[in-house]
Amino acid sequence: MGEMKMKRIMSAARVAAKLPWKDILKVTLTIAEAAGALYRTARKYSAADEGKEDPQLAKRISQLEEQAVEQARIVSEIAGQMKTLAETAEHLHRRVVMLTYAAVGLGVLVIVLGVLMLVFGAG
């Protein structure tokens, strides 16, 4: 049972080594920065302001609407980045499948050549 688990871990490590980590980290950092900016913007108006009368209510509503538009833009940007990540993963999957077929083909070729050498003699 432990040997199977170790094989799975090693297989996962090989797959992880093939991932485009540079691109993944770049996208992840952008997402984290956007989330931080969104959080800082949202914190401008704290809970302490609740209950106080705000003479500039229309201005504040306008700011909230602008923030909603900005949040929508950020969500759209994140969605685009996630799409890029998904496309990259799909491309990697196609490459792995292609390489697997090539490896199987080469294995069959080696076996056939080995059998031919045994049958007809080497030399």
Structural class: mainly alpha
Query: How would you state the average pLDDT, rounded?
Result: 78
Counted beta strands: 0
Total helical elements:
3
Q: What are the low-pLDDT stretches, counting only 5+ consecutive residues below 50? A: none
Quaternary: single chain
How large a portion of the residues is in β-strands, by DSSP E? under 5%
Order of helices and strands: HHH
Major beta sheet summary: none
- Which bin fits the share of residues in helices? over 70%
Could you say which overall geometry the principal axes of the C-alpha atoms support?
rod-shaped
C-alpha Rg, in Å?
28 Å
Beginning-to-end CA distance, first to last residue: 46 Å
Structural summary, described in words:
The chain has helices at residues 2-18, 21-42, 57-120. It has a domain at 2-44 and 58-92. The protein is mainly alpha-helical and 123 residues long. The protein is 84% helix and 0% strand. The two termini are 46 Å apart. The protein has three helices and no strands. The model has no long low-confidence stretch (mean pLDDT 78).
Brief overview, please?
The protein has helices at 2-18, 21-42, 57-120.
Name its key features.
123 residues; mainly alpha; rod-shaped
Question: Can you lay out the helices and strands and say which pair or pack?
Answer:
Elements: H1 2-18, H2 21-42, H3 57-120
Helix pairs in contact: 2-3
